Amino acid sequence: MTFNLLLSRARTGVENGDVIYSKVLSGDRKVFRLETVLDATPEEIHHILWKVEEMHQWNPSIKNIKVLKQAGPETMVTHEVSAETAGNLIGQRDFLSVRHFSRQESCIYLGGAATHLETFPPQKGFVRAEDGPTCIIIEPLADDTGRSHFTWLLNMDVKGWLPKSIVNQALPRAQVDFTRCLRRRLAEGPTQRHTNHHPPTVSRAGQTPHTHSLTHTHWS
Questions:
Q1: Contact predicate 113/83, CB 8 Å
Q2: How far apart are CA 132 and CA 189, in angstroms?
Q3: pLDDT tens track for 3-35
Q4: For residue 32, what are the β-bridge partners?
Q5: Which residue of 1, 113, 129, 213 has the fewest CB atoms within a 10 Å radius of its CB?
Q6: pTM of the predicted protein model
Q7: Which of 128, 116, 46, 113 has the alpha carbon at shortest distance from 82?
């Protein structure tokens, strides 16, 4: 799959070297790929990202995330509600997603996609958006084991009646904002506020996540 360069430090004013590429899929929908370097090990980043119910504490774009079902230590079903924030072009959404992680050699993969539960239909007052499949890949830098290369493939159908031009502007901006918040959280270190629960040990499954598994990944 070939991606076109969409955003870079020179075009967005981002000072951390974030670069975003885009690829048009069938149906004229775009998938976005963010690449950057984070000052943390893959394990440290995974530790924070897998504690999804605490994500609203450091990411203001999220109102809350609740784990509805834990299907083993590596897979869970979550319900996420985005926050009503100023400048949010897409508006408030909710997501019902399956999230999964695995490890292949030194890389950690967090993947996921939308799912459907008869016992948890779309909530009144929200537009239910759908992820996926989407994926985050975290791998250590070859020359610096204390830093990681971070790749995030964002594939989302926000639903509703929004023009594609607005959606294609808002999604990569959301990636940049999320990454900025993640950097701030990593800089805090393992503070007591964020260490009430510990994520499971990363498995060495030897394969990437199934395509039906993430965050939003939903990770955003």
A1: no
A2: 30
A3: 555 544 434 445 578 999 998 877 777 899 999
A4: 22, 154
A5: 1
A6: 0.79
A7: 128
